[in-house]
Amino acid sequence: MKIGSSPDILLVTPPLTQVNTPYPATQVLKGFLSQRNLNVFQIDLGLELFLHLLTPENLKALFKIVREQPSDHTPAVLRTLKLEKVYLNTVLPVIRFLQNRDPTLAHRIVCEGFLPEGPRFDTLEEMDWAFGTLGIQDRARFTATLYLEDIADLVKNFISERFGFSRYAERLALSATWFKTIEDALQGPDTLLERLMLERLDHYLKTQKPDLVGFTIPFPGCLYSALKCGQFIKANYPSMSIMMGGGYISTELRDLKTPLMFKYTDFVSLDDGELPSLQIAKYLNGEVDQSELKRTFFIKEGNVRFSDNQELSDIPFSNSGVPDYRDLPLGQYLSILEIANPMHRLWSDGRWNKLTLAHGCYWKKCAFCDLNLDYISRFEAIPAKQLVDRIEKIIDQTGQSGFHFVDEAAPPHILLELAIEILKRGTVITWWTNIRFENRFSKGLCELLAASGCIAVSGGLETASDRLLQKMKKGVSVAQAARVANNLQNAGIMVHAYLMYGFPTQTNQETINALEVIRQFFHSGLIQSAFWHRFALTQHSPIGNQPEKYEIQVTDPEPGDFALNDLQFKDPLGAEHSLFSNGLNKAVYNYMHGIGLDYPMDFWFDFDAPATTVEPATIENYIQSTEKKEKERHRLLWLGSLPELSIQTKEKKGKVSKKYVLILNNRAEQRTVSVSEKTGAWLIKQLKATSPNHQDLITLSDWKNSYETSVKGNFSAFLKTDLWKLLTKNGLLLL
Fold first, then answer.
1. For the segment 512-534, what is each residue's pLDDT rounded down to a tens digit?
2. How does DSSP assign 626-695, residue by residue?
3. What does the alpha-carbon distance between residue 67 and residue 427 come to, in Å, rounded to a whole number?
4. What is the CA radius of gyration of the chain?
5. How far is 122 from 119, CA to CA, in rounded Å?
6. Peptide bond preceding 201: is omega within 30 degrees of 0, i.e. cis?
7. Which of 84, 306, 406, 585, CA to CA, is 20 to 30 A from 616?
């Protein structure tokens, strides 16, 4: 297909991802393609559907369908139906409140009698204790979220069992080895949800008149809705071309064989979307041939073909451009509050600008990770100056300074330079990211990150077992993770732990011991939240490539014509992992709210679980052993205000004496300490040279040499003085 001019492109995030912030895909593509003089518009169809459903008119249609269902309604549903008028009157005010456009409504939302209370509100009394220290706004948002979840339950039970706040038809796409199941579902009649989704899509197709519509499919739960949209476009706008890509496509569809997929799309691309999208646009414009497409499946003569065009090098991360948030209705996203835990709520609370600090993973050794895939294997970094340039441009676009850096694991050396550049420029942001619990997150680095705006990190503690951490090549130990978490906590940075159970050869005892380790992490205040994931074996991981090395047996049948990623397996040496699922999750949910930290491990399980063999003070002992002597290679950085050297005089019996004092001002108080004139002058000079505004890298060794030359003193003795302690508590960091 050829067209006469560069195509107009409509980029779509299909339902459903988050409703509090845009998923970070179309913004990246828009930023890149716009630089290439392509006219690009983007929409978050998930948000569009959510807001379109939650209107009085469409809620009325929902209630009508529920009433007409030929089934016995539960008492809760019957009560909900009787409250229809209240739902219709309150839905728009609740949406406005959750969009932060009507904050005073919080006073009415928390009052009994304003919102209809469905089954979800049964948990409200249980959660009363959680709001003792939280304000009225948070309690109102939690209550309003329960209200929306009651409506979502109606949709799920009477319209589509595939519906969820942040997923749609996920189960349908999970491990969909053959396309037929999805194809059968796509041929069924449209539900109310699908009609509303297609109405919003049709609006943009008519107003934007794109030549090319691109769908990002990051999760299994987005596949069905993207295909449904493709079906609609093919039927109603046959001249428009369709491309699909994203995380799910890149992991699951690398061996795509079924021609049926191309009833709903024209192109399916893998890995980073910048170059494939650009080549597809050029192909539609008649500039390149099909054989010049990049990492793209297409249909030709009834057969699925794939063009990789290895002569084209990937776009370097440094040239990928600044994510472009324009077109997205940033003021319409909803800050929902599903849980009171201050760390866990970050995923759904607030609108975060999403940005990647580097391409790929700098570690790329974990045995369970998709190391064969480009998004992990190709690591590329860019200078901190360029990162902060991107940050400032995004702030200018969005008017908001909250950032979630979405790297697989943010490299410590990049975070260090990024933080220094942020402080040097005086850029004010709030940010959080994912890390590995490695030793480089020292006390000084954590304090530096906090000073630059870091409020939280998440990281993989996984099985919390040293044997298994070593087996999976995680590169961390439990003791190391405890020390890093302690450094983060002392710097005021919250921590979330990703946890894993069911790793190959993991025993019952190791699972119980892992829970005890996590209990001690919570009890010691090292983490604020956590979540257990069941280990999944994927074909792109080292374990998937060499299962015998990890003592498991893959039991999957022959691959089908569609998706392949998750592999089924037998674990002859391991526990019956499914037994532990409910207990592990129940325990951690309670730990996140400060409950049950003194309960025995077997309290959480409905079977005879073994007693833990982990000593009660294991984690406390780990964090007590964190004191280390300053090393001369440590880099120094002064974040405080430059101190003043003052002379104080005192007259006694006609004699005037004077002494020198160093005055340090931090944001909370003023501190003074006596010094010699020579030491004070030397120190001010050194602190000035050690600030973020100076490019020179200053180490403790540099200070030692300078001190011993200028002051003629013993530097080791200086490190034991009250002055040194005062400096390290008021802005002098050792990195």
1. 999 999 999 999 999 999 999 99
2. ------TT-BEEE-SPPPEEEEEEEEETTEEEEEEEEEEE-SS-EEEEEE-HHHHHHHHHHHHHTSTT--
3. 55
4. 29
5. 6
6. no
7. 585
